[in-house]
Each structure stands twice: as C-alpha cells, then as structure tokens.
Design a protein that fits this description.
By secondary structure, this protein is mainly α. The protein contains seven helices and no strands.
C-alpha cells in the first residue's frame, strides 16, 4: 500500500505540466490559498487534468490550449478563460489561434458565448501587453 502523503508519479507529472502551462507564480498562489477543504480538489485536478490529459502525447500544449479555451468559452467559464488566455504565453498558442478558436465557439456554441470570451481575451491580452511594456 502506498503512503497517501507521498505524491504519485501522475501527480508529479501533473505538477510539472501545470507549472509549464500556467507558470510557477500562478501555481504557487493556488497552492498557498489551498485549505484542507479544497486540497483534495487541487490534488484531483493536478493528477487528472494536468497529469493525465495535459501530459498525454499526441497533442502539443498549443493544441490543448486552443481546445481548452474554446471549451471554456462555450461553457461560459470566464475566470478559466482568462487564466488559459494568459497561459498562451507558455503554450505557444497565438492570438490568432485564440481568435480562430473563438470564431468556432460563435458558430458551434453561440455568438453570445464567443462575444463574451472575446471581451475577456482582449482584456487579458491588454494586461499582458502592459506588463510586458513595464
């Protein structure tokens, strides 16, 4: 039986991928804000989303980034859209990729969802530009 306090290999891979995509500062903030209540959730997403899905071979981080942004926009997950648009700085997805993904959202999930996600993406890109200029 394994020790529940020792991270699994899937968790270690997930944490490495999560840091590569979202950046160390984001992951550190999420971990420091974690409590006993939500720690199991943080472990779940690190292992399942980051250690399994995002770490699979076949698709690049860019590919996964584009699909993730489109899905989150279609679902109206505003905070997650913003986080993943910001992560494009680490995934290789371009602003043109994000634009194309959101055009697909408009056709397949609805214009209002895409319109709102475009507004969010523009704000995030403006913030990123301002940070880069500073």
């Amino acid at each position: 039986m394994s020790d529940p306090h020792v991270p699994s290999e899937r968790y270690r891979q997930g944490m490495a991928t999560r840091r590569a995509v979202l950046g160390d500062s984001h992951v550190e903030r999420a971990q420091s804000a974690s409590t006993e209540f939500d720690r199991p959730f943080q472990e779940l997403i690190t292992e399942a989303a980051w250690g399994h899905v995002w770490s699979r071979p076949g698709w690049s981080k860019r590919d996964r980034s584009i699909v993730t942004i489109a899905l989150l926009a279609a679902l109206g997950q505003d905070d997650e859209v913003a986080m993943h648009v910001r992560a494009t700085a680490n995934t290789g997805a371009t602003r043109e990729d994000v634009c194309e993904a959101l055009l697909h959202v408009a056709i397949y999930a609805g214009v209002p969802a895409a319109n709102h996600a475009i507004k969010i993406a523009k704000q995030v890109f403006q913030q990123m530009d301002a940070e880069e200029a500073a």
